[in-house]
């Protein structure tokens, strides 16, 4: 397998010398933050050696022995995290590219579970900058440039397994410039309506755009739109559906999984530990790895599921739970998991959401699991003011304890007013969770130690 060749050494003038400088530059170089489509990305990918140009449909190069791409409305991050943990537990080298990040951009690119260094990221950005300026310059969004830099960095290392999480949609997402050996679609629900619309069939068609002809497709929900199945059938993908071709079910000492390997032989694992993440996603991760040719070993799987950690997804710190869920589907799962963890006092939700999200659906889904609310304003053009959230919560019969100018201010208020038996749920957005985590990270006196 030949390594991906680097682009021309010519780079633009005045390149940043720090990661912060590069990120600031990337944010300013394209007129819009989201610009779906693969034409510009594919052109730069070819210059980087990530695809073989010369045809209307360039052939992506190999960036890893096997590539697993994960798309879906919810569950992408947890599926990717479990894929990585499971692969490493089997002694395989891994690379993961995910988005967004919570505290550091470095979280987006990991090798063997470790965040990429600033130096690795800077080199990737410099290579992409050189490639996009070759011949006729190509404009890239922040996400597109970051994705290409991540893919180039992965290709230099040629890991056993590369796990790529789609950022938005699927078919036109920059990640989709690379062909997946195994495609995973976790769930399909309404989110990012401004870009993907509100029609679930249309959204499903976009998510299924990561699937490839003749290659395995893992469909990780029993209630996906017909468009996902239709797309897989049209492509001739090897479909493996949750609840039909692979299953997860309760066991006396945990849960059990049944599925198939790449040759179609039946597989089974029993007494698996609860990873604290959705079991449908755990089952999908196991099936995807098996289809990627990994021989699943029971003890390795158990060890991985016991040890997997994903920041911001049902993450407990003492009596505080942090979850980035920001749509009704994610909120319903969160409420179900919270109902399984008794609270002797009151459970208060610190909620901050963007204006383009379904706040009514989220509040309604969490209603039975939450006793009172502290709405918080987020920054930026897409932010929803705390006052608007409070008005919505009250109209739905909820109790608002206080309004906060920011998630950090809301956390400070709660720290001063909580009883020992109370619980706090921090939710509604990556921005909400990130700000509270950043507050704790910068504080010498973390009020909510790790449980």
CATH class of the largest domain: Alpha Beta
Structural class: alpha/beta
Strand content: 15-25%
Helix content: 25-40%
Summarize the structure.
With 451 residues, the chain is an alpha/beta fold. Helix content is 36%, strand content 17%.
Features:
17% strand, disordered N terminus, 451 residues, alpha/beta, single chain, eight-stranded mixed sheet, five-stranded mixed sheet, Protein-Tyrosine Phosphatase, Chain A, UDP-N-acetylmuramoyl-L-alanine:D-glutamate ligase, 2 domains
Description:
With 451 residues, the protein is of the alpha/beta class. It has 2 domains: 19-307, 3-Layer(aba) Sandwich (UDP-N-acetylmuramoyl-L-alanine:D-glutamate ligase); 315-441, Mur ligase, C-terminal domain (Protein-Tyrosine Phosphatase, Chain A), CATH 3.90.190.20. Helix content is 36%, strand content 17%. The chain contains 15 helices and 18 strands. An 8-stranded mixed β-sheet has the order 6-5-4-7-3-8-9-10, sandwiched between helices. The protein has a 5-stranded mixed β-sheet with strand order 14-15-18-16-17. Helix 2 (39-48) packs across helix 4, helix 2 (39-48) packs parallel to helix 5 and helix 4 packs across helix 5. The protein is globular. The N and C termini lie far apart (45 Å). Residues 1-12 have low confidence and may be disordered. Keywords: ATP-binding, Folate biosynthesis, Ligase, Magnesium, Metal-binding, Nucleotide-binding. It is an enzyme of class 6 (ligase).
């Amino acid at each position: 397998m030949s390594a991906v060749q680097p682009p021309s050494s010519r780079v633009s003038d005045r390149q940043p010398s720090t990661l912060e400088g590069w990120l600031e530059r990337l944010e300013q170089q394209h007129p819009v933050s989201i610009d779906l489509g693969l034409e510009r990305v594919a052109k730069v990918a070819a210059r980087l050696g990530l695809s073989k140009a010369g045809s209307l449909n360039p052939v992506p190069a190999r960036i890893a022995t096997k590539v697993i791409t994960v798309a879906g409305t919810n569950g992408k991050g947890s599926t990717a995290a479990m894929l990585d943990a499971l692969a490493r537990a089997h002694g395989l080298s891994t690379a993961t590219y995910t988005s967004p990040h919570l505290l550091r951009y470095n979280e987006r690119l990991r090798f063997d579970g470790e965040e990429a260094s600033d130096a690795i990221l800077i080199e990737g950005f410099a290579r992409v900058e050189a490639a996009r300026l070759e011949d006729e310059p190509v404009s890239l969004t922040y996400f597109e440039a970051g994705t290409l830099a991540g893919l180039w960095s992965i290709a230099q290392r040629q890991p056993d397994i590369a796990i790529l999480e789609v950022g938005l949609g699927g078919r036109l997402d920059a990640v989709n410039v690379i062909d997946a050996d195994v495609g995973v679609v976790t769930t399909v629900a309404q989110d990012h309506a401004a870009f993907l619309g509100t029609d679930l069939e249309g959204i499903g068609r976009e998510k299924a755009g990561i699937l490839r002809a003749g290659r395995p497709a893992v469909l990780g929900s029993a209630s996906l739109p017909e468009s996902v199945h239709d797309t897989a059938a049209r492509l001739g993908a090897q479909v493996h559906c949750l609840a039909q071709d692979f299953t997860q079910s309760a066991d006396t000492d945990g849960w059990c999984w049944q599925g198939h390997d790449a040759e179609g032989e039946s597989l089974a694992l029993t007494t698996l530990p609860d990873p604290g993440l959705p079991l449908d996603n755990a089952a999908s991760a196991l099936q995807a790895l098996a289809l990627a040719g990994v021989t699943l070993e029971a003890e390795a799987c158990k060890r991985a599921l016991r040890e997997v950690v994903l920041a911001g997804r049902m993450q407990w710190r003492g009596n505080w739970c942090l979850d980035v869920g920001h749509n009704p589907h994610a909120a319903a799962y969160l409420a179900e998991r919270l109902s399984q963890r008794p609270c002797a006092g009151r459970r208060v939700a610190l909620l901050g959401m963007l204006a383009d999200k379904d706040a009514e659906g989220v509040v309604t889904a969490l209603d039975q699991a939450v006793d009172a609310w502290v709405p918080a304003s987020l920054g930026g053009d897409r932010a929803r003011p705390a006052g608007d959230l409070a008005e919505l919560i009250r109209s739905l019969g909820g109790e608002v304890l206080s309004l906060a100018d920011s998630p950090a201010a809301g956390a400070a208020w709660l720290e001063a007013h909580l009883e020992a038996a109370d619980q706090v749920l921090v939710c509604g957005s990556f921005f909400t969770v990130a700000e509270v985590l950043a507050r704790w990270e910068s504080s010498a006196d973390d009020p909510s130690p790790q449980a």
